[in-house]
Amino acid sequence: MPGQRTSAEGETSPEPTTRPSTRPRALAPPEAPTARVGIDRIDRIDGIDGVDVFLADLDAAAVTVTGTPCERAPAPLGHSLQEWALARTDVLSAEERHRAARLRLPALAARWSAAHVLLRILLSARTGVRPQDLRFATGEHGKPRIDGCGPHPPSFSLSHTGPHVLLAVATGGVELGVDIESAIGVAAARDVAAALHPRERAELDALGDAALPTATARAWTRTEAALKALGTGLSRDPSIDYLGTGPQPAQPSWLGAHGLVSDLPAPPSAARVRAAICVLPAPGENP
């Protein structure tokens, strides 16, 4: 939410009001199986080919590790997923380790490192490249992408809040953005609302205190997911785009016929978070 992240990098789902009429062009994934590292997989978003969305609870026990390219043995039963991931930080680049070390609180550094270990493992399973050998480049506003892996490498997006890590990975030909946010109170919701589109602010002003936090979180997660998919992050004013505060996301005109903004469902263990995804055809793609 405002003040927390400024780059394009980095969380029963209502049906989106529009669906892509044609699937984005996709490359077949390699044969490497998808890592499951104790991650609860969110239901696949209907109507989007080649997009996998995962929600990880870093505090959950890492009871299964199957199909990952890691050489080490799984964490013993009862160890948290965060402990499992932090035992594998050697897959991170020197730049990633330095970035984690710059975070003010050790707990935040640990969660950031664990989230990026999981991202590398999932991307390794999709590309067949060892986690430590993956290389990344960034766009003008900081949106990361895989450097190499052919003309259409998998796209991805990462967001995390508290112990929850939201990751989306797609075959080439689309741009992704995801956002996940923890529950907020009324005062924080009013602060966030001030940054939103004027129509969204008007809708929120008409709500009572009981409904305000949830509606505000809907609008914010949709907005940030959309801006991450665009590649601008919060360098684009979040008050420009109307995504709506109600159960159904609005679909901005710049999404075109093949873009989509959707809320994401959360399992019971993450009932107090809100999450959204935006999927766009990549520039130059003709769905």
UniProtKB/TrEMBL annotation:
Which EC number(s) are documented for this chain?
Answer: 2.7.8.-
Q: Extract the PANTHER family matched here.
A: L-AMINOADIPATE-SEMIALDEHYDE DEHYDROGENASE-PHOSPHOPANTETHEINYL TRANSFERASE, PHOSPHOPANTETHEINE TRANSFERASE
Q: Which domain of life is it from?
A: Bacteria
Put simply, this protein is called: 4'-phosphopantetheinyl transferase
Q: Which Pfam families match?
A: ACPS
Q: Which UniProt keywords apply?
A: Transferase
> Gene3D superfamilies from the xrefs?
4'-phosphopantetheinyl transferase domain (3.90.470.20)
Which organism is this protein's natural source? Mycetocola reblochoni REB411
Which family does the record assign?
Answer: Belongs to the P-Pant transferase superfamily. Gsp/Sfp/HetI/AcpT family.
